[in-house]
Amino acid sequence: MTKGRLEEKSVELFNKSGYDANELLDKGRKLLFKIKNADIEIVLAKAADVITYVEHGVCDIGIVGKDTIMECGKSFYEVLDLNFGKCRFALAGLKNKNFYEGYSQKVIATKYPNVTKRYFNEKGVDVEIVKIDGSVELAPILGLADGIVDIVETGSTLKENGLVIYEEIAQISARVIVNKASIKLKKIEVDDFIGRISRFI
Asked: Domains plus CATH for the chain?
């Protein structure tokens, strides 16, 4: 399960579904938890690591944002949209600018180079991608990039920095992913888990 943004809602969903996940409410620095009333262990990890653990089969099921799936995902089944952690991928930049104007190759700053590359390839637009790990909003302001591709929830961070959305790329929310082997070898357990939580989304 992804630490941070999706964690609280995931714990809420587990508890509603009859899994006792209360230990996660006062977890300290602990990363591995046993569900008291079921044969389930919960691992807390960074989003990209959730995908790695599921792909390598050390975890059967993961809860992770669609943004991470689009950027990092390769080999697993995406089985359920949990309808929380909602936001969107967007192309944004400085107000009062026409992004596609002019003939020069556009520069895009982003934490999501794979998503960005796919998006512009599909549009047939050649761009240079600059990977930024921190606040991408700075890149157009400082003149490093013509635009950014980032996750937008309310748009207030963009607004506060004089940026606007040019185009929406994709809707994002928390998803359940399952290891390819586990979906066959642990079918009963996986189906039971998915059945239980899907009643409360």
From this structure: 7-85+173-198 (3.40.190.10), 87-171 (3.40.190.10)
C-beta of residue 106 within 8 angstroms of C-beta of residue 127: yes
pLDDT tens sequence across 145-191: 999 999 999 999 999 999 999 999 999 999 999 999 999 999 999 99
Please give the structure tokens belonging to residue 32. 């591995």
User: Which residue matches tokens 């899907």?
Assistant: 198
pLDDT digits (tens, 9 = 90+) for 94-122: 998 888 888 889 999 999 999 999 999 99
- Per the structure block, which two tokens stand in for 2? 């992804």
